[in-house]
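Lecture 7 notes: from sequence to structure.

We start with a single chain of 632 residues. Read the sequence below before looking at the structure.
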Amino acid sequence: MTGIMRVLLLASILFSLVGAGVSLSAEGDRVEAILRNMTPEEKVGQLFLVTFYGSDLYPNSPIGRLIREFRIGGVIISAQNRNFTNGPETPAEVLSLTRSLQSLAMSEPVSGTTPIPLFIGVDHDGDFPQLRSGFTPIPNYMAIGATWDEGQAELVGSIVGMELAAVGVNMLLGPSLDVVDRPEVAIKSGIGTGAFGGDPYWVGKMGKAYIRGVHKGSKGRVLTVAKHFPGRGGSDRPPEEEVSTIQKSVQELRKIELAPFLMVTQAQGEETPDALMSSHIRYRGFQGNIRELTPPLSLHSQGLGVILSMPEFASWREKGGILVTESLGAMAIKRYYDPQLSSFPFKRIAQEAFLAGNDLLFLSDFSLSGSWDEHYENIIQTILFFREKYADDAAFRAKVDESCRRILRAKLKLYPHFSLQEILTSPVGLDAVGSSTEKLLPLAMNSITLVYPEQEDLAGRLPSPPLYKDSILIFSDTRAIKDCQDCPAVQTLPVDALENTMLRLYGPRATGQIDPEKIHSFSFSRLKNLLLSPQGDRELEELFAGATWVIFAMQDLDPKRYPASDAFRELLRSRPELLRDKKVIAISYGAPYYLDTTEISKLTAYYAAYSPLPYFVEYSVRALFQEFVPHS
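Now the structure, written as tokens:
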């Protein structure tokens, strides 16, 4: 082929690509081209990620106005805010919602001329996520981490990515990269099963695999927001109470809390998170002075700047990594600015969060009164305040433009062309949503852990599983949870869950190994009443007397919200004689570190199943009946 022919061929290829609408400019050039066409109002609007109430999405609804007039960057949807309901048609309902939201964003705006798609995010942590009905029931992070298998983390991530993409959700607030290295601290922080584990290296490895899975499963249509940067594992209280305090220096943070974030931001390709969520945590001794206490790092430009200036994070930021705040309406933030809760300086909070280095400001519960009207008004006033700052302050204007570049780059990663046809999700993928539970059965089996005794001692303590002659008494820490105040309650661990599973696997219609007349199931509440009532409970006392096996199905200890959750510990303390000469089995369907060494020593065996999902209940029962030996 002659040189002229090569030139002509190349020219024809270029012409055909341009004619097909394929962009030939570099990614940076596309970002700059869009940015040049955006008005200041549009640039400011892109910084905001908001929540809204209900599912009325007409143009003049509150969320309609925020999208069309104020050009917000994205929304977070939830059942709690009645954006959808968990019912028979949830996947189709969510798809309709996301299509309507994107249609509003891409329609001819009231002001401005640059239609830009929305980030549509969801908090989708395992066991009981916002999206449940019709979706594959995914396990929590600790259950995944207990397998010590990166492949399982990638599998769960791929299912999550595929299902979120199928319903038009393009941003996952996860995974969590917190490290629970000290269980006694984790109990105070309320993290529970919301972490892969306590080894920073393995948390990073599992996090990379999960992120890879989300990106692969969604085919690049779902962004990941790893949380809670720079790590909440060492915090001393739940975030819904007050701002947590951690007594660690930057050097100590690098070894534990920051290690998983350093690992994933240095990863390549699909293993790299698109964003990090900055957490409302403050530090004592952050830069060596043990008397110095920082403000919440998410709002502290100096402290957050120290971490973001580390070469690993600086490189990730240069490649477009986005920083997203935790909710700026969180109770911890409100109490930090006014412990008496008599004022809420929302504009100051948003400004300090942005100047600290965050690109996306998550405005949820953004009012003092809890009123949705006040929430919307505060969002509008904050956006108007930022518009004024953009016009009057050159340094502020430069920061807004830089954050917009990162945001646009992420949106172009999702949608190379900002066209409605490309952005609206087709209903074709709905058939696959909710169909992957069977793939997760090996994960459940491999996560079951024998906490006590050692494997070599188990046969001596439990020479056989329950048999037909045995009387089995089961107590379950069942809990009712609701998506919203008016939503129907869901039982997280039904009272009869273990009993029904045992009978299905080993009852008369199966192996005939156990007698259904000799199994009795009760709630922890019934047990707690026995312990507290001066009159006692004759039925339970008689059943205790005749039982050969007593099984306790536990969840995380949380007496403030669930007063009966400490019933088993109270039984060990106040009525140990009820358990004398019996096989006493504890199975944790939450985090396994709520029993101390003395309490565990009173058991025949202690298993950790980590999750109350039905298939985890099944494999914990299979382990109890010695179908397999769980790992230690």
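DSSP finds 26 helices and 18 strands in the chain. Keep this in mind for problem set 3.
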